[in-house]
Write a structure and sequence with these properties.
By secondary structure, the protein is an alpha/beta fold. The protein folds into 3 domains: 230 residues, 3-Layer(aba) Sandwich (Aldehyde Dehydrogenase, Chain A, domain 1), CATH 3.40.605; 173 residues, Aldehyde Dehydrogenase, Chain A, domain 2 (3-Layer(aba) Sandwich); 270 residues, Aldehyde Dehydrogenase, Chain A, domain 1. Helix content is 40%, strand content 21%. The strands form 11 sheets. Strands 15-17-18-13-12-20-21-38-32-31 form a 10-stranded mixed sheet, sandwiched between helices. α11 packs across α12, α17 packs across α23 and α23 runs parallel beside α24. It is globular and about 100 Å long. 51% of the residues are buried.
Amino acid sequence: MLYCIMAGSTNKTVHDIFQTMEYGPTSTSTATAQAWLEHRSRALDLFIDGKFVRPADRQTRSVAGSSGETVCSTVCAVQEDVSLSASSAASGFKYWSVLTCHQRAKVLLSLVSGLQRHGQCLSELCDLSQCPSSPSTLVRLAQYYASWAQLRDTLMPDWTPWGVVEVVVSDDCSLYSLMLKVLPALAMGNTVVLIPGLGTSPSALLLAQLFVEAGLPAGVLNVVTGSNASLGASLAQDPNISYVTYSGNKQDGEMLCKATAGMGVPVSLSLSLGATCPFIIFESADIDSAVDGVIEIAFKKKKDCQWLLCVQEPVWDNVVARLKLRLGRMKCVALNTEAERGLVENAVHEAQEQGATLIQASPVPPSGALYPPTVLCGIAPSCSCVVTPPPGPLLPLLSFRSHSEGVTLGNHSPHGQAASLWTEDLTLALEAAKSLSVGCVWVNSHSVADPSLPVSGHKDSGTCTDGGKEGLFQFLRPSSSSCPVRRSSPASVDYSKFGTEASAAVIPNASDPSSVPSSYLQLVGGKQCKAVSGSSMSVLAPDGAVLAYCPDGGRKDVRNAVEAAIKVQPGWMKKSPAARAQSLYSLAEGLEQRKREVTASLRSQTGLSLEEAEKEVELSIARLCDWAARCDKERGGALLLPQSGSAFSFPEALGVVGIVLPDSSPLLSLVSLLGASVAMGNAVVMVPSQKYPLPALEFIQVLHSSDLPGGLVNIITGRNQLTQALANHSVIKSIWYWGSHEGCQYLQYTCSSPLKTLWLHSQERENWTSPHPSVLEEIWRQAVQWKSVWIPTA
């Protein structure tokens, strides 16, 4: 590592610098950014319809610098401004969406030139507003998505943009995270209404000006600044908004989900801020490099995530000794407020009470918003500063014995953003990377970011994928299908009582024993059984007569099904794709053997003709074979990056998926969704159509004759109480729902905590009998989450 003697430090020799290992001074000039702010009178306007506007009688909000000085002010938009921006974006979409891919790509390439010309101004402005960002990373971002804009119709011909996309960013989010949403949305043909956080507002408005210089048509990008988190919900109410995506902290993301519930607009979350990420040092690591890496990222003044240091016991003493040496040469870190210092001191005090010892860079200052870099050694994994660490220069240090224990510690956090592994054993690195429940793994490195790396939010880190081709699909929908949820006003739903209504009484009404309807059983944990409550509900024929009885399942049935699913799902996921394919082929063969019985059940339940029922069964057999064939075809691959090193991405199973099935094509829709889930290694808890449950219950016999592990597929019949139970179960990772508007609203409101990926449909418009290939691809993409692994070579 080379160190240059900068101006102002000529009294130090190279030997002195190597002894202290300190960095030379950097340029702190902000003249270019200050000139831009002065040109705008340090009062930044809204950006609507391709120009800066300042409506009269608006409140303003001050953007503070690192030392508390006012950098500039931004306008606090009101409902009138929000409506104007949405209307402008809707008008811009009519023009932007019909441009050729080449025309859109030219605009983004022109933005690249603008970023290169004005990179210094942008960098200085980010530093002034305390959201530092590298212009080179933004240039790479724009170049990458300009190429995707050029290739959209060639490589994704069957997909269409949503329309007007609302991008919301929290106050403490970085400019890179903001542009990771805006640029792909524009590249895919959407228009954007951006609500930046306070710190990113100046940079976002400068970028809007650069877009104008690049030739972006009026209305395609609008920037609306505000004073509170409710601005995003106000904008989502506008009927022109088709999709909402949020990037930032978990608290504001939950508020946005709850506030937009029932509006009929999909919401995706990227919750990277505040996450706890493991930094794992195995005994085979280069200890010096590992300690250098953790020092670089753990004690920054502003960081997107908190780090948890996990060290294998044989090298514990070496790591601690090197940490003491490095910390002894570090200065105190400035906190945002003195209140933050209080949180840090309380966390340190709690850790000491639980037996932790401290390694501190220097004594704690008596007052002020400063605190020395601190390592908490020997801390318990259950300590609050490990689970929910406070902001500040704290680094919890835990030990582990075996490799598997290290991975378990890494998965201890409720977040799943990223992890850094340090080992010279490549086999160990790859095995650990695959076992960690995170979206990105850096091997012998950290904080490598590139837009070609697809990263999915695991656990509490989000519900969508950003980066790579995979991240583009959040801004697209299949061309052959309509929007899955219709726009509407929120219904009056009592969330505390949803799913608690009493079931209709089932009374005997047949005097002839031969006319008593049949009773069916549900499938839980590989066994056919009644509902735990013992209740049943009537299944009606098309003429209204009681056709059969089926169990009226509830919360305890869901609990038993999930317990069975989580036992068998890890083993199923570890099976080879070829083994999973063979099991699906055997399931298709079983359905072929019971074709007559299933066809009869389908006819009696739905009133279809014999020809129509037989066609649906044949299509169901073919659909299972389709998913079996795709088991080993849908793989990730190596990524070509501008940096030295190797990276690859691959899809992973979600875990346990809850599926509430539609009324249309009750058998075909079941096997279409079940096949995609199981093919990718998931376990499922399925709720058949309330109107037509018998085909699903008849399909249980097919499952029994297959070689699928018991508990992998669970089928429970019932009503809204099952939707309520799925939403509130912490193990369920994703819910696919076809049902009422009230059910969609309940899930949007409830599934923000615990966080679940939602795929909601409030209208029956799917053509299950002859779906477009893009529809099947959408189902598959709903069944996976993506992980990227970065391995440096130099």
